[in-house]
């Protein structure tokens, strides 16, 4: 048995129901799992000791929404939006073209770099979607490459209709493409929005995935109100993501369900859309998660601390709520109970901050406050992020 003691923790966030936060704490990891925590003064001994130097220790971030298998960037679109242009879902097709032209090695190198970049900022679990291939062969290689980096792989053949006949493409997504991709995935997702897929099309696509044993997730409410949110609730989706535009009925439906409302404020930052109203969802009793939506079009960032900062500054969340949403909330959106918290028995996925409190994640925006990351109790050093094995997230 290998034991690691993290000592001299100024503030430990456990998300434990009875003791969510402990001051002057220590935490013991046994074989990659949290085995004990409490006052530092009564800490047991261990094979290895890590000195948190009075810093805050938080559960590793659970980023439940990303699209990191792609080629090329769209900085020119971002620049045009900052000058007043609006976001268009059609930009996805540009990335599809470049992704199809790229080699497996190029795609994996980019995805690995982004996963490692996220890890250095405290992310220990990352969901990864396909959706920039949109042929059977290109979607299959996207999910296969994603599966080398995470167990949370999502089939998003229904990102947009790439070219050709709409009905034929939907038949492909729900047929041959789904059959090829499903064995490598845990989830199916659909972009249910004007310019992408209608509510009826989305229902057909999600039902086909559910029949194949995949869990449902939905992109909805990014660019305007839609019945996609209700569809997600009705189908028992684990999460409906974006939720920037919600009717009162949508909020009520979410609050009465176990579908998580995942907010992606990197998109609002990068598209100059209104911020999603986290307060309204929380006050209604909905479960809220925060995720990066890392993708080259609408949110090219891997930074979960930045999402926390946006949520606190502009979305009505307290620092504690934003931290919960970016850790335990992400875990709920992935229907995982082994991550997103540091209760005894949890996977020892955590970040040691160079700050006395998680409040600093929002108070010191843009500052690299994550000093060390442990994934399954294994220490990771942000400086080693170029090495592929350090990028591996499970
Ligand atoms: O989540 N909304 C759909 N997909 C991405 C955007 C992808 C793109 O613009 O390339 C999103 O925002
Ligand atoms: Fe997305």
Describe the 3D structure.
Strand 1 and strand 2 form a beta hairpin. The chain is globular. Helix 9 crosses helix 11. Helix content is 35%, strand content 22%. It starts with a strand and ends with a helix. The site of fe (iii) ion has 5 residues, from loops. N-(iminomethyl)-L-glutamic acid (NIG) binds next to helix 2.
Which key phrases capture this entry?
394 residues, alpha/beta, eight-stranded mixed β-sheet, 35% helix, disordered C terminus, binds N-(iminomethyl)-L-glutamic acid, binds fe (iii) ion
What's a quick, concise take on this entry?
The protein has 394 residues and is of the alpha/beta class. It is 35% helix and 22% strand. Helix 3 (104-120) packs parallel to helix 4 (136-147) and helix 9 (248-255) crosses helix 11.
> How helical, in percent, are the residues?
25-40%
Mean pLDDT: 95
Percentage of β-strand residues:
15-25%
Structural class: alpha/beta
Task: Report the radius of gyration as a whole number of Å.
Answer: 20 Å
Each distinct ligand: N-(iminomethyl)-L-glutamic acid, fe (iii) ion
What's the end-to-end separation, in Å?
Answer: 21 Å
Largest sheet: 8 strands, mixed
- What is the approximate shape? globular
Unreliable segments of 5+ consecutive residues: 381-394
- Total strands: 17
**DSSP helix count?**
16
């Amino acid at each position: 048995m290998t034991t690691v003691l993290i000592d001299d923790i100024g503030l430990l966030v456990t998300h434990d129901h009875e003791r969510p936060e402990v001051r002057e704490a220590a935490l013991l990891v046994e074989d990659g799992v949290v085995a004990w925590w409490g006052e530092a003064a009564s800490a047991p001994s261990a094979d290895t000791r890590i000195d948190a130097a009075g810093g805050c220790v938080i559960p590793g971030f659970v980023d439940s929404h990303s699209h990191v298998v792609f080629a090329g960037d769209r900085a020119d679109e971002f620049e045009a939006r900052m000058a007043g242009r609006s976001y268009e879902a059609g930009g996805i097709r540009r990335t599809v073209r470049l992704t199809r032209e790229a080699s497996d090695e190029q795609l994996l190198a980019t995805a690995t770099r982004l996963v490692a970049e996220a890890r250095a900022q405290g992310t220990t679990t990352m969901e990864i979607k396909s959706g920039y291939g949109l042929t059977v062969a290109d979607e299959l290689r996207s999910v296969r490459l994603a599966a080398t980096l995470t167990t949370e792989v999502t089939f998003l053949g229904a990102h947009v209709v790439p070219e050709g006949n709409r009905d034929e493409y939907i038949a492909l997504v729900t047929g041959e493409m789904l059959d090829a991709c499903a064995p490598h995935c845990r989830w199916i997702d659909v972009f249910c929005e004007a310019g992408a897929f209608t509510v009826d099309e989305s229902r057909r696509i999600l039902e086909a995935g559910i029949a194949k044993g995949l869990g449902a997730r939905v992109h909805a409410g990014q660019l305007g109100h839609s019945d996609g949110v209700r569809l997600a609730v009705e189908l028992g989706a684990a999460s409906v993501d974006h939720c920037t535009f919600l009717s009162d009925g949508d909020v009520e439906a979410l609050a009465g369900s176990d579908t998580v409302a995942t907010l992606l404020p990197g998109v609002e930052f990068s598209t100059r859309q209104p911020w999603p109203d986290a307060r309204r969802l929380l006050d209604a009793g909905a479960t809220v998660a925060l995720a990066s939506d890392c993708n080259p079009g609408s949110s090219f960032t891997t930074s979960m601390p930045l999402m926390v900062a946006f949520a606190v500054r502009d979305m009505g969340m307290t620092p504690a709520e934003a931290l919960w949403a970016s850790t335990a909330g992400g875990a709920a959106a992935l229907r995982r109970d082994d991550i997103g918290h540091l209760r005894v028995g949890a996977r020892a996925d955590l970040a040691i901050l160079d700050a006395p409190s998680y409040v600093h994640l929002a108070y010191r925006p843009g500052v690299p406050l994550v000093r060390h990351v442990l994934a399954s109790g294994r220490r990771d050093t942000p400086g080693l992020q170029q090495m592929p094995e350090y990028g591996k997230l499970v």
